Amino acid sequence: MNQIGISKDYSAKMNEKLNVYLSNVQLSYMNVRGYHWNIVGKQFFQLHEKFEELYDSLNDMADEVAERILMLGGTPVHAFSKYIKMATIKEKENISTAEGTVKEAINEILELLKNEREIIELAADNGDEGTIDLMTGYISEQEKLVWMLNATLK
């Protein structure tokens, strides 16, 4: 058992998943910073502001996920070279149109949602309500964000 009463075997498995998720959050953060910096066009003001809101949220998520890994007795990945190797979200460069940035942001959020649902499934099988609670909060925010971003593409 670790400090919070969860088995070490389970914690090791969960920490692997959480470090992949953390890597995805970090890659998405950097991508969204790029969308924020480089956006051009008629939707500049709205998207510039929305992307800043999104990368601030991703920054908070990275901190919360790293803390959860620590609570489970693990070590959060903290080298960008490792994030790049572990992440399923890839680096994006030179995307500046409204449609391009929004589509990429949606795809990244969908990948995070996929990770979150897998994490919840493993956590539920092991009585890890703390991790479930963390991921559930992210899911409800991101599902709404995907819906809103998709609305800008119509």
Overview of this protein structure:
The chain has 154 residues and is mainly α. The protein has one domain: Up-down Bundle (Ferritin), CATH 1.20.1260. It is built from five helices and no strands. The chain has helices at 8-38, 44-71, 80-86, 98-125, 129-152. α1 (8-38) crosses α3. The longest helix has 31 residues, at 8-38. The chain starts with 7 loop residues before the first helix and ends with a helix.
What attributes characterize this protein structure?
mainly alpha; Ferritin; elongated
User: Per CATH, which architecture?
Assistant: Up-down Bundle
CATH fold naming: Ferritin
Helix content: over 70%
What class would the helix/strand composition place it in? mainly alpha
Strand content: under 5%
Text of the CATH class: Mainly Alpha
Question: How many separate helices?
Answer: 5
Q: What is the chain-wise order of helices and strands?
A: HHHHH
Query: What's the name of the CATH homologous superfamily?
Result: Ferritin, core subunit, four-helix bundle
Shape, principal axes of CA atoms: elongated
Number of self-contained structural domains: 1
Separation of the first and last Cα atoms: 51 Å
Q: Would you report the number of β strands?
A: 0
Largest sheet: none
Structure summarized in a few sentences:
This protein is an all-alpha fold. The protein has 5 helices and no strands.
